[in-house]
Write a structure and sequence with these properties.
By secondary structure, this protein is of the alpha/beta class. It is built from 15 helices and 13 strands. It folds into 2 domains: about 5-100, Beta-Lactamase (2-Layer Sandwich), CATH 3.30.450; about 115-315, Rossmann fold. Helices cover about 40% and strands about 25% of the residues.
């Protein structure tokens, strides 16, 4: 039987992003955002058990069996680094393995907006990168930390579960701590991070009220804090943070957010028009005075319009504005954009009216040339 390394090697050869292992199915690879079943033999429960034991060792495998979930990362020489998530479904083991690029891409290499370079220069505050699972949040965060590491002389502390991208010290010092290996828990690691002379703190994920509270306090007391949430946009992110706390704390949390929040970057990955990759579409919210007021006064529903109205001045963008730009740059199809958009009707109207305006301008230019002739 093939080893796990053999399947991961094939994932790399296919330029894929994820490997899925499920009982009764052959290995399944995600390539360019699409799942593709291999022609290999289906895997049984014993096959998968042996694969996982060889990957994490018997002691950690039995921990997985007991807890029913297990996250880890593994580096394989010549192939790269992979993030693994083991789980049970229908009382049988399964797993998903994600390829983590060996080289951390830069903001420019990822084609991300220049405003992200301005965001990471802030001396303190909270920066959130949000989006659904598989939207590239970890890669964008790594690119932002990499920008700081290469341009600033700071002490960066990350708390992750597991460590994904490995940062090497450049101008900055980067200390990466993994839950379960370097520290016992999110709460204890975050509390102690504040005693380690940090300038920048990355929290892999804000999972509960306790970790959110510590992150907000750190942002308020002179640290630049980065984290992620599984939310879809700025409005939902603010509501999720506030709702993590008891009702009598909501006003205080909104006040903290209005003061400490720097930006929320909401991300989606779109299939490129040529079918050979994916590109990020971003909603970018900068915490301007008018947005801070909307947060404090519990009016998150107004944020989307504020982003649209102030897009050019503050370098913000709604998701539709980002998708429209990608369509105009011929990077994605209109069909793909419609499937990603959180408001496809508005996007359709914008595409149509812009097309009509361009056609009218072209006609007027042609008539002008005829008159000159």
């Amino acid at each position: 039987m093939s080893e796990l390394n053999d399947y991961l090697k094939k994932l790399v050869a296919l330029h894929g992003s994820d490997l899925h292992l499920k009982c009764g199915q052959p290995p399944i690879y995600r390539v360019n955002g699409q799942l593709t079943k291999s022609e290999e033999a289906p895997l049984g429960a014993v096959d998968i058990e042996d694969l996982f034991k060889s990957a994490v060792g018997e002691k950690k495998y039995f921990r997985f069996v007991e807890e029913k979930e297990y996250d880890f990362a593994v580096a394989i020489e010549g192939m790269g680094r992979f993030r693994g998530n083991l789980f049970f479904q229908k009382n049988t083991p399964g797993g998903v393995f994600r390829l983590i690029p060996a080289d951390i891409p830069s903001i420019d290499e990822m084609g991300l907006p220049e405003v992200l370079k301005e965001i990471v220069k802030k001396p303190n505050g909270l920066v959130l990168v949000v989006g659904p699972t598989g939207s590239g949040k970890s890669t964008t965060l790594a690119a932002m930390i990499n920008e700081i590491n290469k341009t600033e002389k700071l002490n960066i502390i990350t708390v992750e579960d597991p460590i994904e991208f490995v940062h090497k010290d450049a101008l900055s010092i980067v200390n990466q701590r993994e839950i379960g290996m370097d520290t016992a828990s999110w709460e204890s690691s975050l509390k102690r991070a504040l005693r380690q002379d940090p300038d920048v703190i990355l929290v892999g994920e804000m999972r509960d009220a306790s970790s959110i509270s510590i992150a907000l306090s750190a942002a308020e007391t002179g640290h630049l804090v980065f984290s992620t949430l599984h939310t879809n946009d700025a409005k939902q992110t603010i509501e999720r943070i506030v709702d993590s706390f008891p009702g009598d704390a909501h006003d205080f949390v909104r006040h903290q957010l209005s003061l400490s929040l720097v930006a929320i970057v909401s991300q989606r990955l779109c299939r490129t028009k040529d079918g050979h990759g994916r590109v990020a579409a971003l909603e970018i919210m900068i915490n301007t005075p008018v947005i801070a007021k909307a947060i404090e006064e519990n009016q998150p529903g107004k944020i989307q319009q504020f982003i649209a109205d102030s897009a050019s001045f503050y370098q913000m963008a709604t998701l539709n504005q980002s998708l429209f730009r990608l369509i105009n740059e011929d990077k994605i199809s209109e069909e793909e954009a419609m499937g990603i958009s959180n408001n496809p009707n508005d996007l359709k109207i914008k595409i149509k009216t812009t097309g009509q305006a361009a056609e009218a301008a072209s006609t007027a230019e042609a008539e002008k040339k005829v008159r000159k002739f």
